[in-house]
Amino acid sequence: MTWPEARAEIVRLLSGLSIAEPVPLSLRRVHEYPPESLQELPCAVMEIAGRQRLRSPSRRETVYTARWWIVARDERSAPAGAVLDAFSEAVLDAFDGAVALGGKATRVEGPVVEPGSALIWGGQTYPAQRYELRVHLIESAAFAP
């Protein structure tokens, strides 16, 4: 189990997201790393993960905090807020069956869905919602007590 494998599984799950209401939509793109500009909406933008290392005499645990944004715009007859709200439910549902990210993680906490906000990216303001997922990777290790 490695962080690149776990991250790739998060990207795979996000890539399959779609909603039926208020309008049928799928994420048009999942940016694995922050891009210079946002062209294809709605999209997801992964941030660089935070990390924390925990050690005991017999194991090492690394906790990665994966964060991403889902960025939207007004669609036909649906405001961006309604689109973001629908995607937040789709994200929660997508991770229900991924408690260990397909064997890529030891344990997963979340995702936590933060309140929607305005995201400024490349000088533009977009309606967006931020997500957080804590991914635990535990491995055996021998450290001096």
N/C terminus separation? 25 Å
List low-pLDDT spans: none
Q: Into which percent range does the helicity of residues fall? A: 10-25%
Shape summary: elongated
Structural class comes to alpha+beta
**Rg result:** 17 Å
- In terms of DSSP E residues, the strand content is 35-45%
Write down how many β-strands occur, each being a DSSP E stretch of 2 or more residues. Answer: 9
By oligomeric state, this entry counts as single chain
Number of helices: 2
Q: What is the typical, i.e. mean, pLDDT? A: 91
The topology string of helices and strands comes to HEEEEEEHEEE
Largest beta-sheet characterization: 7 strands, mixed
Describe the protein.
By secondary structure, the protein is α+β, with helices and mostly antiparallel strands. Helices cover 21% and strands 41% of the residues. The chain contains 2 helices and 9 strands, in the order αββββββαβββ. It has helices at residues 3-15, 80-96; strands at 18-19, 25-26, 29-31, 43-46, 50-56, 59-71, 107-113, 117-121, 124-140. Strands 3, 4, 5, 6, 7, 8 and 9 form a 7-stranded mixed β-sheet that branches. The longest helix is centred in the middle third of the chain and has 17 residues, at 80-96. It is elongated and about 60 Å long. The relative contact order is 0.24. The mean pLDDT is 91.
